[in-house]
Amino acid sequence: MKTSKAQIAKKEFFDKGKKLPVCVNDGCNKFVVVREWKYWSFKSECGSCTDCRKKKLYKIIDGKKIITKGTKKTITNDVIIHKKDFCENNDGHLGFSCPVNSNQWNNFLESLDLDHIDGDHMNNKPKNVKTYCKLCHNRKSKETGDWDSNKPSRRNIDN
Ligand SMILES: [Zn+2]
Ligand SMILES: [Zn+2]
């Protein structure tokens, strides 16, 4: 059977002694979800956190969204959700302004993405992971020659 590019890339990753990044959420120590092995494209959160966040299985304490221990079998610590409910470019730090008001995201949360600022999917330090709306995210990608989070990552494809 022919080995797929994804399988080759996965093997290469572990052969090089690399480890998957850990979920960006404070208190969570699970590995992130792999978006595409072929490009070493990883999400910023683990599957359990994403699931709880999307299903709103969290409590809001002091303005923070906390997934409390035991919410799911796989949640073994209290976890603070990193992703915001608004576009973090609301202050225009990307060099252009977000065209949407921060209080208008309620029914459009699926249009907010987590972005690795430096484009490195391995760099899951909280300060490297920001919430941007699709409008700002696309423009950032275009202006910086950066990739969209759904597209190939920084793995150099030399073969
Ligand atoms: Zn997690
Ligand atoms: Zn925005």
Task: Give the arrangement of secondary structure elements.
Blueprint: H1 5-15, E1 34-36, E2 41-42, H2 47-54, E3 59-61, E4 64-67, E5 79-80, E6 112-116, E7 129-133, H3 134-144
Antiparallel strand pairs: 1-2, 3-4, 4-5, 6-7
Bound molecules: zinc ion (2 copies).
Describe the fold and architecture.
- The chain is α+β, with helices and mostly antiparallel strands and about 160 residues long.
- It has two domains: about 1-80, no CATH class; about 85-159, no CATH class.
- Helix content is about 20%, strand content about 15%.
- The strands form three sheets. Strands 3-4-5 form a three-stranded antiparallel β-sheet, with helices on one face. Strands 1-2 form a two-stranded antiparallel ribbon.
- The longest helix is centred in the first third of the chain and has 11 residues, at about 5-15.
- The radius of gyration is 17 Å and the shape is globular.
- The protein starts with a helix and ends in a 15-residue tail after the last helix.
- One zinc ion (ZN) binds near residues 98, 100, 133, 135 and 136.
Q: How many domains, as an integer?
A: 2
Order of SSEs, N→C?
HEEHEEEEEH
Distance between the termini: 20 Å
Averaging pLDDT over every residue, what do you get? 91
- Distinct ligands: zinc ion
User: Helix tally?
Assistant: 3
Q: What spatial order of strands do you see in the largest sheet?
A: 3-4-5
What is the CA-based Rg, rounded?
17 Å
Q: Low-confidence parts lasting 5 or more residues at pLDDT below 50? A: 148-152
The helix fraction, in percent, is: 10-25%
| Percentage of residues in DSSP E strands | 15-25%
Derived structural class? alpha+beta
Number of strands: 7
- How would the global form be characterised? globular
Describe the biggest sheet? 3 strands, antiparallel
